[in-house]
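Task: sequence in, structure out. Protein: ASCH domain-containing protein.
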Amino acid sequence: MTVRGHRWFVEVWTVSTTGAGWQDADVLFPNADLDRIASGEIDLAFRTWTRPMHVAGGRQRTRIGVVEFTEVAKVDPAELTDEDARRAGTDLARLRAFLSRKDGDVYRVGVRFAGADERVALRAKRPGRRQVAEVLDRLAAMDRRSRRGPWTREHLELIEARPAELAETIAASIGREKKPFKADVRRLKELGLTESLPVGYRLSPRGRAVLEALRGL
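Result:
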């Protein structure tokens, strides 16, 4: 666990925060720690929360692939050991200092590398007709449920026309705030239609095929 001089990797995507499944980005890991999780060197994380933000069995997508939470339990920080700190990738003094920075209870979170992000392979392939039809049905359902009207094609076309551009800038061009815009793009990414870049996004091969189909409707 790196507690200073770190660079957080925050590309994690949400499906559920109340049960097992894909969960919110409340356990963020420095890039170096992600590599150590993948190798098995780190298998614990400790966080200070006002309420538990994850449950055992939850999963989080990261740069290295999928990280699974194997346990989530409240602990007494006074009872933390050198072994706990070692398994979290730090030493006990730094761990306690890190945990004391926020008010709340201390939670022990077991972590393990659970494999590659299946969306990487998904978005790299151009889908067949049946797959395109299935995606179009899902996009249509997302449009129907939207309070502000259809948006999926508009967002795909924006990303096609403005790759590697700041999300905030793209959102402002259509009168939206950055946060809800990025949430919608995450929904498209869940379908394998977009890819995140160091700045902004681009359409995946799968996304380009689906946009072509949308334009043909």
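The longest helix spans residues 129-145.
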